[in-house]
Amino acid sequence: MTGFARKLPLALFASACLLVLPGQQATSAEPLVAEAIINAPLATVWQAFATREGYATLGIQQAAVDLKMGGLVQIQPDSKGTLGDKGTTVSEILSYEPERLLSLRVRQSPAGFPDTQAFANTWSIVYFAPLGAEMTHVRIAGFGFNEGPAATDLSKFFEQDQVAQMRRLEKHYWPLCALCKTEAK
Predict the structure, then answer these.
(1) Number of domains in the chain
(2) Looking at the domain assignment, is residue 23 inside a domain?
(3) Domain CATH for 154
(4) d(CA 49, CA 113)
(5) CA dihedral sign of residues 33, 162, 66, 134
(6) Owning domain of residue 123
(7) Nearest CA among 126, 145, 153 for reference residue 137
(8) pLDDT truncated to tens, each residue of the chain (185 aa)?
(9) Is residue 170 within 8 Å of residue 36, measured between CB atoms?
(10) Alpha-carbon separation of residue 156 from 8, 32, 82, 98, 122 (angstroms)
(11) What CA–CA distance (Å, rounded) separates 44 from 48?
């Protein structure tokens, strides 16, 4: 048996562990999805999701990113708030592959959200794909947002937060590419 063959079952098991999170049951519910084609190179778009400076390009002046497994992404969109206060959204980094994938689970919902416990079963995966040298396709798939009694509030949160983030990123790198203009019609 080759070294690869001996390591394959362990690798498959490790991959499965990333998919089945502690305390979360697998469901067949479809994820909520936000997508955009950004008129910027892949490395630039990755920075917008993986660095404090990147969040600043989206108009979020208060952010902290500890890019590592188990690291935190903290975002305070209110200029009058303080990073780390109750208005800060805190997400844990579950996994990442630079310039390809970033998965996050919300650990602290923003103040004022009616059911903070509902976030315990939500997580998102952000996928990045280059479209030539100057454009990037970004897809955010949100899981657990459309389940349980808080589904409507969670879905609205995803729509407002994730979709708004994509729109800010698109606008930052205006004008839209020719393909984007065609698809928008």
Answers:
(1) 1
(2) no
(3) 3.30.530.20
(4) 23
(5) positive
(6) 28-48+96-184
(7) 126
(8) 444 333 333 232 222 222 223 333 334 478 999 999 999 999 999 999 999 999 988 888 799 999 999 999 999 988 889 999 988 999 999 999 999 999 999 998 877 777 777 777 789 999 999 999 999 999 999 998 877 778 888 888 888 888 888 888 888 888 766 665 666 66
(9) yes
(10) 41, 10, 24, 29, 13
(11) 7
Question: Please, are residues 97 and 85 in contact by the beta-carbon 8 Å criterion?
Answer: no
Q: Which residue has the tokens 């498959």?
A: 12
Q: Quick check: is 150 in a domain? A: yes
Between CA 126 and CA 96 the distance in angstroms is: 9
d(CA 135, CA 90): 29
Is 40 inside any structural domain? yes
The DSSP secondary-structure symbol of 109 reads: P
Q: For residue 175, is the peptide bond before it cis, meaning its omega torsion is within 30 degrees of 0?
A: yes
